[in-house]
Each structure stands twice: as C-alpha cells, then as structure tokens.
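Caspase domain-containing protein, Candidatus Kentrum sp. FW. Tokens?
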Amino acid sequence: MYKRTILTICLLFLGIGTLQSQETNRGVALAITDKDGNQVGLYRESHALVIGVSDYTNGWKPLPGVKEDVKALEKALTENGFKVEVVLDPDSNGLKAAFEDFIKKYGWEEQNRLLFWFAGHGHTLAPPFSPDEKVGYLVPRNAPRPEKQKKEFVRLALPMYDIEQYASKKIYAKHALFLFDSCFSGALLEATRSVPIPEHISDKTGGPVRQFITAGKAGEVVPDRSIFRQQFIEALAGAGDRIGDGFLTGVELGEFLHEKVVHYSKKKQHPQYAKSRNPRLDDGDFVFAVGRNVPDKIFEDFERFRDRLKDGSLGPWMIVVPAGKFMMGSPKDEPERDGNREGPQHQVHIVKRFAMGVTEVTFEDYDHFASATDRRFPNDQGWGYGKRPVINVSWNEASAYARWLTKQTGKEYRLPSEAEWEYVARAGTTTPFSTGDCVHTDQANYDGNGEDYAGCGAKTGVY
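Tokens:
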C-alpha cells in the first residue's frame, strides 16, 4: 500500500458534478433540488443541437441574422452547462442527418437532457386529402417555395410529425426540449394551452417529458433580428425564473416566451407551447439552472476550482484528475510490506475523470459545515484549527459533510474509494513514497527520530 506520511484523519472528497470531459463530448452534469435542498433529479450530461439556416438558395428570403443568433445561443447554452453542436445551412439530407446523428450519439442515455433549436423558415401545409389538417415543416436550405413546387417542397422539407417521431420513438433520455425560431402550426401545437406554473420543483419534475415551443403561429413572420432568441437568453439569465427557486422549467419558459415575444413584437408573433401527445411523455418538466445554480464551466485536467455554497462562500479546493490506470497495492519485494493489507498487487482502471480535494479537509471548511448543521466541533488536541487538517471526525460525519456539500452546491460530492485515493496519491509513481524509495523529514512532516525506515537513511532532521 502507498505509505501515508501525514498522521491525521485524511478526508478527501470527490466532486463529480462540475466536471465533464471535453474530449468525451459531454455537457456539465446538473443536480436538481427542491425548496428544501433535497435532490430530486440529476442530469448526467447536457447536450444541445443548434441548427441555423441563413443562406436559402431556392426562393426563400435569406436570414442573415440567424448566424448572429446561433453564435449567441452557443455562448448562452455553453455557459448554462450544455455541450453544444452547431449545424449551419443544411440542405434536406443534412437537416435530417443532424437530428438523427445527434439522437444516436446522445439520446440513448436516460439521464441526459437534450435541447434542440432550429432557426430558419417554417411553413404550414394541409395534406391533399385532409384540407382541415395542418402540418408544420422546417425548411432546409435547398427546399423550394411550396406555391411553386409543392411536391418538391414536401419531399425536401422536414415535417413536424417526423420531429414528433424522433421525440417519442427514438429518444430514451427522459427530458427533451424542442425550440423552433420559426412560425408554423400543426396538430401537435394545437394542443397549446396555458399551464399553471408549479410552486416548486418536486419529484414529478423528473418524469419523462417532450416539450415544444415555436416562435409564432402559421402565417406570422419571424423578424430577421429574433425577438424569440433574445428573450430565450434573457430567460436563461434568470428573468424566466418566476418563482425564484434558481431553476427555469420548460413550463415557465413557455409562459415567459409567450408573454414577452407577444409584447415586444407588438402582437405580430404568438409563440406556441405544447407537451407531447403521448401520455407517457408529458409528466415531467425540462429544467435549466439559473443564478447560483448554473453549473460551473467544463474544466481541464489538473485545473483547480472551488464550488460556491448557498451563502455565497466557497467550498474546498478541488483538482481535476484525469482517467487512467495504475498498479494498486505494493510488490512482494517492497521493504516492510504488510502482505495481508497491501497485496496482491493488481491493475486498476479509472475510467472517468473526477475531482479530488487538493488537501485534507481543513478545520475551517469542516467547521463551516458543523456550524450550519448544529453539529459538534471536533477537538484539535492542541494542534491548532484554521487551515490545518481536521481530526477526530468519524466516517459517518465525513459522509454527512459530503452530502451537505452536495446540497449546498448542486454538485455530487462523496468520499473517494480506496482505489481513487491511491490513484491520486501515487500520481503515476510506483515507489513506496512519492519521493522515491525513501522519505526524509525535510520532505514530509513525521517523527524522524525513530528507527531508520528500511535502512534508507530516513533518520535525518528533527520532528
């Protein structure tokens, strides 16, 4: 086993929620909590597909403002914790492939949240034999005007019933939100209704849901400078959080966009909101974090960070640890090896990145928790408090501290496993100590007046 050279109780914590790997193409995880701070849901990954069609080539008016909208959306969604994929000016095949490829990559994980955004022209048509029925279409770059080439338009445009099939049949993720900065109508959107905003996040929020919002109805014109996009970003910035709980739900967003876009467009646009017509996909609610609940940025390997607590103070320093593998335990020929506790030596794979406390938890950090939860303050035994490692804390108390950090930050904290601790402590080394085969008192704080460890000359200096 890797030798411990600090003779105190080491409390190291694993912060999972703020980390996701850029190279594995994940957005930031998000813990959803109710008004009492209890976790009622968790998004493990957050992904957004932003599609913008600006340069139309077959009779439709160009929309140069879409390019600006896409950039603004990418920035806002990234800051909100999403991994964003952008597709610009797709033709018919490219538009369908964008949806299908994105769903294949991210739609199978149940705990993911998926957001789809389309900015471009939309159109509504009635099928030949159902004149009273309405079908909404998303218009790709190469689709013609339907009044000139109706069959070709229908062949190339993407109908809303395909979107509905994607939503109900091909996505396994619990929560998916579709936003269309376009104007059209259809059977799905005729279900638009005013939905009461729930007082607080609850267990029901985590149920499966598919939600749809458009910028306007059939026949309305979306301006090139999008009011819908501007108000969506305002909602993400906190304006849409009507009940002030630090979260923005899909229902709140639908109500907010309808109110604001109607007002600022001078009633020229009337956004439509609907949930899936599938009874198994209309229970829950999509959730964004706003304000203090917004997830932190995606961190690089070995980057240090601190999560913010509810009172505005900062939690313990954490450091990002990359995935990898190492030999756990010690070899049989290592001096003074405890064979029963340190073997057999075996290879361990750490498959995902995580964050570990930079140091042992300090009295300062632990006392903050003890004060907030009316717990006893541990005795320092005369060694001193402040930034010194906390001692005289039980495993149950350490676990309670980790749970408290989870509630305070909205990120997942827990005690590390033995393998995770040793992986970090070894830091790529294979010797008994990080300093090599021997450790001196000028390299670590220990009693150097005792017997020389393994005859390596460790008896130097003073305690």
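The two ends are 24 Å apart (CA to CA).
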